[in-house]
Amino acid sequence: MPPLLEARNISKAFGRFVAVAGVDLVIRKGERRALIGPNGAGKSTLLSILGGQQAGGAGGQVRFDGDDVSGLQPEDLARRGVGRTFQISRTFRKMTVAENMLASLLPRAGLIYSLSTQRLNILREQADAILTEVGLARRSGTIVDEISHGDRKRLEFGMVLATRPRLLLLDEPAAGMGLQERQELMAMMLDQVTRNGITLIFVEHDIDIVFRIADVITVMARGRVFAEGNPQEIASNKDVQDIYLGSGH
Amino acid sequence: MTAHHRHESIIWLGAAVAAAVVLFAFGPGIALLGTEIMIMALFACSLNLIMSYGGMVSFGHAAYFGLGAYGFALAIVRFDVPPALALACGPILALLAALLFGSLCVRLSHIYFAMLTLACAEITYAILFQAYDFTGGDTGLTRFVAPRFGLTPQLYGLVVLVVLLLSLLILRRLVASPLGLAIRSVGEDPYRTAALGYNPRRVQLAAFVVAGGFAGLAGMLFSVFHGNAFPDYAGLAFTLDALVMVVIGGLHSFVGPIYGAIIYLLMKTFISRYVGEWELVVGIVLMAVVLGAPRGLAGLAARLGIPSGGRKS
């Protein structure tokens, strides 16, 4: 299968600190790739480069679906089908859950500059459907500031889903959640990713989740790719065990 | 129509009738004050669009108010445009200036955005002040039309009331539209909107231009009201007046700036009769509102069940 994303020699420095140093990443269509590594390994920076948020000043080349997308702005990448969630979820906190979803549907529907409230009402059905998919139908009228951390994670995922991404970049989707809530959230996300045929790159510290979901795991350390392989290969890699996984795997 | 909308419409209608009654019931002095309040309310509402909904604090919004006044005045004085047509020139000039300055300002955010808006307004003020042969310089443009086109204070007040209501209706529809939702979203988190496929700068520019146009409309009404145009209309003092009105009235509320304009101009008019330093009283009121009622008078009104046109839909 041809690669959906091909990143070559990606690098990014903040002053004298090199966050990402010459990383290559090739992601096939439909693949679920996990990026793991200790804090400061460059995982989130790499996601931000791929999502366009840190594209400025980054070195290397990124090709998405055959096109050179190096240096493109996040909005351009989003329109091409690159969706992104953040380590600390970014939602519109003073708006209702339903409004968040409607706002996420506007770009795809080409209605950002529309003045027609009727056309907005037509989108409400789609918004409700996605909210149901991500388990937030009951919270539809609630201000986002008043919902739980877990629900905000669900909402952010739903918002990205509304843009109909082909490649989804998830940055620690289950961070800061209890075990059961984490498992339910990941099951829901995985179900959506599978049903919508979305290619996935995710950063996650929970190794159980990583090994359950990922087809391929990339281990990063100090801005570089330290190891790469399927879960069995990574689990049996002595060096990875020593520096990151411990002896449990 | 939902019960909420019906309730809100009745309150709007009641407020409009009450304003009309005030204009005609208490003599020309009150009619003049009421008219000035309505014009400044429109100006403050235009600032509120970019501030409360678009998340952009402008220190130079008076530039568009001033250009609204000068667009009208210059069209008559320098280009011999019939006054009825010149009315449109004010808002159009303000709109074009907002497009020009806005495309520069929205490249930055937070304090840098605010400073750029201030710089643009200072440039506008300097041009109006120094281009003596064209703008009349510090003496402004006067006696080019009779104040209020010769209408009685009451009648002109009624015209302004109708323009204000129509403007509020348009702004209300805009805020409830997809573009309004986009403006609010970008105002809250431009980073997230970009990741969803928005071009945040373009949305901010759209809001900026609309706000500039309505500020220009208010400036034009003000110029007709007094029959003149002065560089001060584009000065920092006018921007600060509008900022105070928005904050006292209540950020994140659609009608807040109207409450703010009423209270601010009533204080200015009546307290200044008894206290020389009336700004001191305004300062104390502003401090009390910011510390005690951050949602302003509209927030207090909402607690009493009076719709404030807040963000929640």
Calculate the terminal CA-CA distance of chain A, rounded to whole Å. 30 Å
Which structural category fits the helices and strands of chain B? mainly alpha
User: Residue share in helices of chain A?
Assistant: 25-40%
Domain unit count of chain A: 1
Strand order of the largest sheet of chain A: 6-7-8-3-9-10
Task: Briefly say what this structure is.
The complex is a heterodimer of chains A (249) and B (313). With 249 residues, chain A is an alpha/beta fold. Chain A has helices at 43-51, 74-80, 97-109, 117-133, 149-162, 179-195, 207-213, 231-235, 238-245, and strands at 3-14, 17-28, 32-36, 59-64, 67-68, 82-84, 167-171, 199-203, 216-221, 224-229.
Would you give an account of this structure?
- The complex is a heterodimer of chains A (249) and B (313).
- With 249 residues, chain A is an alpha/beta fold.
- In chain A, 39% of the residues lie in helices and 25% in strands.
- In chain A, strands 6-7-8-3-9-10 form a six-stranded mixed sheet, sandwiched between helices. A four-stranded antiparallel sheet of chain A has the order 2-1-4-5, covered by helices on one side.
- Chain A is globular.
- Chain B is mostly helical and 313 residues long.
- Chain B has one domain.
- Chain B has 14 helices and two strands.
- In chain B, strands 1-2 form a two-stranded antiparallel sheet.
- At the A-B interface, helix 2, helix 3, helix 4 and helix 5 of A face helix 7, helix 8, helix 9 and helix 10 of B.
What are the SSEs and their pairings?
The complex is a heterodimer of chains A (249) and B (313).
Chain A: E1 3-14, E2 17-28, E3 32-36, H1 43-51, E4 59-64, E5 67-68, H2 74-80, E6 82-84, H3 97-109, H4 117-133, H5 149-162, E7 167-171, H6 179-195, E8 199-203, H7 207-213, E9 216-221, E10 224-229, H8 231-235, H9 238-245
Parallel strand pairs in A: 3-8, 3-9, 6-7, 7-8
Antiparallel strand pairs in A: 1-2, 1-4, 4-5, 9-10
Helix pairs in contact in A: 3-4, 3-5, 4-5, 5-6
Chain B: H1 3-25, H2 27-53, H3 62-77, H4 83-105, H5 110-130, H6 132-135, E1 141-142, H7 153-176, H8 178-188, H9 190-196, H10 200-226, E2 228-229, H11 236-249, H12 256-274, H13 278-292, H14 296-303
Helix pairs in contact in B: 1-2, 1-7, 2-7, 2-8, 2-10, 2-11, 2-12, 3-4, 3-5, 3-10, 4-5, 4-10, 7-8, 8-9, 8-10, 11-12, 11-14, 12-13
